[in-house]
Amino acid sequence: MAMTKEIPTQRVEVTFVGRPPARQVARASGVTDVGVDGSRLHCLVHGSFQPLLEAMRGYEVISFTSIPTPEGGGLMEEE
């Protein structure tokens, strides 16, 4: 029995108090497709959330939403 663990990909939306740290987040490992709409930042996170969390350190977060995406929903498959 072989197990394949896909790298989870999540669509993330974070609302901040004030301006989001878009540049820091865009430089974080595994983070792509960063966009900002007012105090909201959205992006894709491939794998661990740790680089994203470190990029947001020191910024006040009001809400954080994460939704698995079809291309890497984080499922573990057994064969």
Architecture overview:
This protein is α+β, with helices and mostly antiparallel strands and 79 residues long. It is built from two helices and six strands. The strands form two sheets. A four-stranded antiparallel beta sheet has the order 3-4-2-5.
**Parts with pLDDT < 50 across at least 5 consecutive residues:** 72-79
* Whole-number total of structural domains: 1
Number of strands: 6
Summarize the main sheet.
Answer: 4 strands, antiparallel
Separate helix tally: 2
CATH topology (fold) name: Alpha-Beta Plaits
Shape verdict? globular
Strand and helix order:
EEHEEHEE
Which CATH architecture? 2-Layer Sandwich
Main-sheet strand order equals: 3-4-2-5
* Helical percentage: 10-25%
Q: Overall mean pLDDT score?
A: 87
Ends apart, CA distance between termini: 6 Å
Strand percent estimate: over 45%
Helix-strand makeup class: alpha+beta
Q: Class in CATH?
A: Alpha Beta
Q: Indicate the radius of gyration in whole angstroms.
A: 14 Å
